Amino acid sequence: MENTKNLPVGYDQPATGTSLIEFKNVYKSYGSNKVLNGISFTVKRGENLVILGKSGSGKSVAVKCLVGLTKVDKGEIFISGKDITKLNEEELNRIRMKIGFLFQNGALYDSMTVRENLIFTLQHNHKNLTAHEMESAVKEALQNVGLEEAIDQLPAELSGGMRKRIGLARALIIKPEIIIYDEPTGGLDTITAREIIELIRNIKLKYNTSSIIITHDLTCAKYTGDRIIVLKDGIIKAEGSYKEIENNADDWVKSFFEK
């Protein structure tokens, strides 16, 4: 899926901001299945962190723990200095309002137009907006993903790539501090995947968002990540820039780059 000759590789610049997200020695098991085995990492303000791993490596469970959908067995997870493992549901919901999600399938409501999908999300997070304010926010979000013309269409009328971009507009409409991308290029053709990669990069630059990008797509990792961690069986096997990961001496990490 390369075809990215005009994009610089990753950012390869060390993040200088303070930590917005921090995992400290986090464990999570389901019965005898040990999914996370004491992982620790940070995401700095304005940083794109890629979590790279094969199916079953613990990527998605780490994110579920981050937003409080799954309780950790042991360890601490901080967002903006607050340990979310110790918050009640009301406090968690206030934290979640800072987080935008791009789900793998877009996760749009089929019976709603694009405008209605975005307004639904906006109203959930901001109760007191006027109709004019909501319409302006919808149009701005769609402009950010280049799909203003799709405002009155239903999801069924859109291509897979367009649905993904509308999903991204829905994530952006709440002006999040953090965006979580779940397999953002999954199931897309080469050209559309490149468009999504460019959007991820542009959003970071425009809004200074902090992002976690869950993927097993090396091209996506290469061109979107400031920093990459590689998970295997709930353990961080490698961490660094794309170039550092690519040159890692571990045989299992090397296997990612074998054609």
Automatic annotation (TrEMBL):
InterPro entries: AAA+_ATPase, ABC_transporter-like_ATP-bd, ABC_transporter-like_CS, P-loop_NTPase. The keyword Signal does not apply. Residues 21-258 form the ABC transporter domain. Keywords: ATP-binding, Nucleotide-binding, Transport. One of its GO terms (molecular function) is ATP binding. This is ABC-type transport system involved in resistance to organic solvents, ATPase component. It comes from Chryseobacterium populi.
